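Let us practice reading a record.
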Amino acid sequence: MVDKMDRVSEMLRSIGEKCTEQRKLILQALLDLARPVSADEVYEYLSSTNRVGRTTVYRTLELFERKKLVRRIAFRDGIIRYESAHLEHHHHLICLCCGEIIPIENCPIASLEDSISKDFGFQITEHYLEFYGYCKRCKEDRER
């Protein structure tokens, strides 16, 4: 079984960048958190055990985005979040109350994408779909 840090090191080598300890920690944090997270969330996650500066986190995430190692996501709250680009294509449910982000693993509009592409002669390179509402817990709290 491949060690997690070996996997992270290989991912960094695959983009042709130096495999520094800070880059490994930041990428590992993204994989550990396993949801879209802001640079500040990555910093907070790492700050208790590692010495990685906030500016380093921001710059590293920007580098990872340029190298297509992470995907940048901007939900309507205006906070920029990042997630691993190695995840399967998916969409999100976003709770308007608690902010929970729930991934939708299967793309519900893949067939629609094919139809749009054919009907309009449009080459679609990517799409994102977000549903806003209330998670189960917040929905139940609101109904009380």
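A brief commentary: The longest helix spans residues 21-33.
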